C-alpha cells in the first residue's frame, strides 16, 4: 500500500480546528513532469504535421515568398497581375488598418495562396515522378538517359531531409491492372502445373470470366481505386486476416530470432532491460518521425504500417476482429511463471535507464507469489479459435477486475515473456536446439505468449531473446526493421558491464511492478487447449555457410532468384512434381501498399529443373523470376487483383467459377525473404559473429512447406523451414537437406570449379 499512498498528490483531514491539508511535493513533481512530457509530444506532433504538410517545400519558404512579393511591390511592380488589389478591395470594412497596412495584409494573403499553390504543384510533380517504375527493369550498369534524368529530378525535389511520413501524400496510388493482362499472366503461371486438359479447362473458364462477369467487376474495382487510397489493403487486412476465425498462432503470426553465434549477456534481466530500452528508443524515433522512409537513399516507401507498431492489439470479435491502437503507453505487460505484471518504464516523464528496467525485471523474477486460478494459461485464449475467445471476452472480461487487468495487457506498448527455458544454438546437438528455439518463438507453450499484441518479446533464462509478431497490422519487413535496430542498439549502443549487467544508475525508490489480478471462471479455463496445433508443427532452422550473395553476384545473378530456383529444384526432388509457389513481394512504392504474390514456379523455372544440366536455362529462369518480382512490386501482380475481384463478386452476390477455383488453389510452397535493411548498424567486418538468424513462419498448406530465408553478409544464407508432422509427405529436415544440395548443385552448374574448391576446404561446409 505504500506505493498507493505515494501516488496521492494531496491528502486532507477535517479536524475541530479546520481542514488539515498535506501536499506531497514528490507526487506533484511526478505529475508535473509527466504532463510536461505529454505536452512536449503534442508540440512535436504539431511541428511534424506542419513540416510534412508542406513537404517537399519547407515552412521557412513561406517567408521567402512573402519577402519576394513585398520586394517586387516596393519596386513598383505587381507580380500578382492585379490580384493583390482585388484582395484589398474585398477586405472587411471593419478592419481599422491604414492603406499601407491593408496592402501588407493583402500581400500576405496572396503570398500564402501562392506558396500553397507552389507546394501542391511540387507535390503533384513528385507524385508523377514516383509513378515512373521503368528503372526497376533496367540492367545494372545500363541505366537509360530517361532514368538518369528522372533520378536527378526526384533527388532535386527530395533534397530536404524527409520525415517518416513526409512522402505519404506524394506516393502514387496502386494501379488496377487490366483484366486481360491479369488473366494472361495467371494462365502463364499455371501452365507448367496443369496437364493439357486442365490447362484448356482453366483457359476456357478465364475466357468466359473475361467476357461476362469480369468487366462488370472491374468497373466497380476502378471506382474504388478512384475513391480509396489503396484498392487492396483494407480488404486484404479485413478478409485475409481479421475475418479469419482460425487460430492466429502458427497460422498467421511469425517470429524473429536473436544473433546466431553470440548472446550479449547471459543475465536474463539484463537482456530484458536492454531489449525493452532499445524498443522504446525505436518507438521514440517513430513518434518523432526520424526514421528514413526511402529505398536506395532517394526512392520513398510507404510508412503507413509503422503507425500501429506499438500500443496496438488485435481484439477478437464473433465475426471479425478489430485492431485497436492507442496514442501512447508508458508501460509494458510482462508474463513470468504464470503471473502477469504491469511494468512502468517511464517515471516523471523520463524513460527509465536500462539498469533500472533490469532492476524492475529482476523484481518480477524474484517474486515468489503463485498464479491465481486460471491465470497461468490465460494466454491460450489468444492462441485458439477467434469466436470462442470473443465470446469469453464479452462474457467474462468486459467488466470488473478482469477488464482492468485485460486493459493493462491490451494497452501496453508491447508484451514481454520471461521464459524459464534456455534456447539457442548450444549444447551437444546445436541443430536440434536451433529447431526447438524456432518452435518456442512460433508458439511457445501456447499460453505463455499474448498472440493478440502487435508483437511480443521473449527473453529466455540464458539471455537469448526473440519476438513473435501478429500479422494483420504489418508485414515482416516492418517488424524486421524494428528488430534489426533492437539487436544492434542492444549489442553496440547500450552494451553491458563486464559482469553482464546493464549500464546506468538505479533509483531504488522505484515502485515495484504491479501484479495484475484475475477472477477467471472454470468455464473459461476449459478453452485452454491448442497444444495439438503446436505439436503438429515441424520446424528446421539451418545456416547455409558454403557461399552467400557475394559468390552468386559474381555469377551475375540475383541472389533472391538463385534461392528461389534452388527451392524449385529442392521441391521437385522432394515431391517429384511442381507446385504453386508463393513468394511475398512488397508494394510499398504505392501509398498504403502491403504485399503482392510472386508466382515463382514459372515455365522457365520448371524447364530448368527438368533439364538441370543446361546452364543457360538457369539464367533464363532467373531473369524470368526477376521480371515477375518487378512486376509484382510495380502493381502488375496477379493475385491481389483477382482477390479484389472476388471480394466485389461477393458484395454483388454473384458467383464466378473461375475466381472460386483460383482463390481455392493451395500454396504448397510459401516463401519469403527477410530483408536486411540496416546493414550499417552491424559491423560484420570487425564483428562477424553478430549474424542475425532472421525469422520464420508456419506452413500455409497442411501438405506444404513454409520457407523463410535471410541473406546475411556475403557468405551466409539462413533458412527457416516449416511443415506439419501430420502430413506423411513432408519433412522439414529432409527438405532442408534438399535445399542445401540444390544450392550446391546450382553453383556447381554455374561454376564447375566450385565443387573442387569445396572439397579442398571441407571445414566451410555446414
UniProtKB/TrEMBL annotation:
InterPro entries: Carn_acyl_trans, CAT-like_dom_sf, Cho/carn_acyl_trans, Cho/carn_acyl_trans_2, CPT_N
Residues the record marks as active site: 471
Membrane topology, from the record: Multi-pass membrane protein
Chain ranges passing through the membrane: 50-74, 104-126
EC number from the UniProt entry: 2.3.1.21
GO cellular component, one term: mitochondrial outer membrane
A Pfam entry, by short name: Carn_acyltransf
GO molecular function: carnitine O-palmitoyltransferase activity
Keyword Oxidoreductase: no
Domain of life: Eukaryota
Protein localization: Mitochondrion outer membrane
Reactions catalysed: (R)-carnitine + hexadecanoyl-CoA = O-hexadecanoyl-(R)-carnitine + CoA
Enzyme class: transferase
GO biological process terms held by the UniProt record: carnitine metabolic process; fatty acid beta-oxidation; long-chain fatty acid transport
Keyword Transcription: no
Pathway involvement of the protein, from the record: Lipid metabolism; fatty acid beta-oxidation
Domain Choline/carnitine acyltransferase: 174-740
Keywords, ordered alphabetically: Acyltransferase, Fatty acid metabolism, Lipid metabolism, Membrane, Mitochondrion, Transferase, Transmembrane, Transmembrane helix, Transport
Domain Carnitine O-palmitoyltransferase N-terminal residue range list: 1-47
Family: Belongs to the carnitine/choline acetyltransferase family.
Record-given protein name: carnitine O-palmitoyltransferase
Source organism (scientific name): Cyprinus carpio carpio
Amino acid at each position: 500500500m505504500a506505493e498507493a499512498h505515494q501516488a496521492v498528490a494531496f491528502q486532507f483531514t477535517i479536524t475541530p480546528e479546520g481542514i488539515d491539508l498535506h501536499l506531497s511535493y514528490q507526487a506533484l513533481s511526478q505529475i508535473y513532469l509527466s504532463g510536461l512530457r505529454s505536452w512536449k509530444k503534442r508540440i512535436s506532433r504539431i511541428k511534424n504535421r506542419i513540416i510534412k504538410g508542406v513537404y517537399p517545400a519547407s515552412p521557412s519558404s513561406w517567408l521567402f515568398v512573402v519577402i519576394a512579393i513585398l520586394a517586387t511591390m516596393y519596386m513598383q511592380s505587381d507580380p500578382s497581375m492585379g490580384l493583390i488589389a482585388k484582395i484589398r478591395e474585398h477586405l472587411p470594412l471593419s478592419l481599422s488598418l491604414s492603406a499601407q497596412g491593408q496592402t501588407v495584409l493583402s500581400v500576405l494573403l496572396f503570398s500564402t495562396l501562392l506558396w500553397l499553390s507552389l507546394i501542391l504543384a511540387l507535390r503533384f510533380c513528385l507524385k508523377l515522378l514516383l509513378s515512373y517504375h521503368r528503372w526497376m527493369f533496367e540492367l545494372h550498369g545500363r541505366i537509360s538517359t530517361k532514368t538518369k534524368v528522372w533520378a536527378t529530378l526526384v533527388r532535386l525535389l527530395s533534397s530536404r531531409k524527409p520525415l517518416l511520413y513526409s512522402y505519404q501524400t506524394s506516393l502514387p496510388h496502386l494501379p488496377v491492372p487490366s483484366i486481360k493482362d491479369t488473366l494472361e499472366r495467371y494462365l502463364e503461371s499455371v501452365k507448367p502445373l496443369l496437364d493439357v486438359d486442365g490447362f484448356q479447362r482453366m483457359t476456357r473458364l478465364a475466357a468466359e470470366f473475361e467476357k461476362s462477369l469480369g468487366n462488370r467487376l472491374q468497373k466497380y474495382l476502378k471506382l474504388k481505386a478512384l475513391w480509396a487510397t489503396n484498392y487492396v489493403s483494407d480488404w486484404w487486412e479485413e478478409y485475409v486476416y481479421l475475418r479469419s476465425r482460425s487460430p492466429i498462432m502458427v497460422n498467421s503470426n511469425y517470429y524473429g530470432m536473436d544473433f546466431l553465434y553470440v548472446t550479449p549477456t547471459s543475465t536474463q534481466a539484463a537482456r530484458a532491460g536492454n531489449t525493452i530500452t532499445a524498443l522504446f528508443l525505436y518507438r521514440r524515433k517513430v513518434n518523432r518521425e526520424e526514421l528514413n522512409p526511402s529505398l536506395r537513399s532517394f526512392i520513398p516507401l510507404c510508412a503507413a504500417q509503422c503507425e500501429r507498431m506499438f500500443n496496438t492489439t488485435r481484439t477478437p470479435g464473433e465475426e471479425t476482429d478489430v485492431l485497436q491502437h492507442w496514442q501512447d503507453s508508458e508501460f509494458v505487460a510482462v508474463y513470468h511463471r504464470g503471473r502477469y505484471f504491469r511494468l512502468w518504464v517511464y517515471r516523471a516523464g523520463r524513460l527509465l535507464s536500462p539498469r533500472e528496467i533490469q532492476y524492475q525485471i529482476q523484481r518480477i523474477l524474484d517474486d515468489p507469489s503463485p498464479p491465481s486460478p486460471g491465470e497461468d494459461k490465460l494466454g491460450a485464449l489468444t492462441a485458439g479459435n477467434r469466436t470462442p475467445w470473443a465470446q469469453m471476452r464479452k462474457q467474462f472480461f468486459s467488466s470488473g477486475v478482469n477488464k482492468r487487468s485485460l486493459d493493462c495487457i491490451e494497452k501496453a506498448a508491447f508484451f514481454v515473456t520471461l521464459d524459464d527455458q534456455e534456447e539457442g544454438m548450444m549444447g551437444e546437438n546445436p541443430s536440434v536446439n536451433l529447431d526447438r528455439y524456432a518452435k518456442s518463438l512460433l508458439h511457445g507453450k501456447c499460453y505463455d505468449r499474448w498472440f493478440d499484441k502487435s508483437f511480443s518479446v521473449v527473453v529466455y533464462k540464458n539471455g537469448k531473446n526473440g519476438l513473435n509478431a501478429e500479422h494483420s497490422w504489418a508485414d515482416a519487413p516492418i517488424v524486421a526493421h524494428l528488430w534489426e535496430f533492437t539487436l544492434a542498439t542492444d549489442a553496440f549502443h547500450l552494451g553491458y558491464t563486464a559482469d553482464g549487467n546493464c549500464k546506468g544508475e538505479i533509483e531504488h525508490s522505484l515502485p515495484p511492478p504491479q501484479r495484475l489480478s484475475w477472477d477467471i471462471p472454470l468455464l473459461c479455463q476449459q478453452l485452454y487447449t491448442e497444444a495439438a496445433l503446436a505439436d503438429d508443427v515441424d520446424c528446421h532452422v539451418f545456416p547455409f555457410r558454403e557461399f552467400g550473395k557475394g559468390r552468386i553476384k559474381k555469377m551475375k545473378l540475383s541472389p533472391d532468384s538463385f534461392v528461389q530456383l534452388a527451392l524449385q529444384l529442392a521441391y521437385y526432388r522432394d515431391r517429384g512434381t511442381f507446385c504453386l509457389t508463393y513468394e511475398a513481394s512488397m508494394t510499398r512504392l504505392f501509398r498504403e501498399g502491403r504485399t503482392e504474390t510472386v508466382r515463382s514456379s514459372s515455365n522457365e523455372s520448371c524447364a530448368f529443373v527438368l533439364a538441370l544440366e543446361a546452364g543457360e536455362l538457369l539464367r533464363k529462369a532467373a531473369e524470368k523470376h526477376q521480371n515477375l518480382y518487378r512486376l509484382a512490386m510495380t502493381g502488375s501482380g496477379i493475385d491481389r487483383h483477382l482477390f479484389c475481384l472476388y471480394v466485389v463478386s461477393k458484395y454483388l452476390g454473384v458467383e464466378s467459377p473461375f475466381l472460386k477455383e483460383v482463390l481455392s488453389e493451395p500454396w504448397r510452397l510459401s516463401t519469403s525473404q527477410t530483408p536486411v535493411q540496416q546493414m550499417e548498424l552491424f559491423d560484420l567486418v570487425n564483428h562477424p559473429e553478430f549474424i542475425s538468424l532472421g525469422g520464420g513462419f508456419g506452413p500455409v498448406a497442411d501438405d506444404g512447406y513454409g520457407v523463410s530465408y535471410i541473406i546475411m553478409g556475403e557468405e551466409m544464407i539462413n533458412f527457416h523451414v516449416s511443415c506439419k508432422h501430420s502430413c506423411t509427405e513432408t519433412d522439414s529436415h529432409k527438405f532442408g537437406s534438399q535445399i542445401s544440395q540444390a544450392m550446391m548443385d546450382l553453383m556447381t552448374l554455374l561454376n564447375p570449379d566450385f565443387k573442387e574448391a569445396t572439397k579442398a576446404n571441407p571445414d566451410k561446409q555446414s
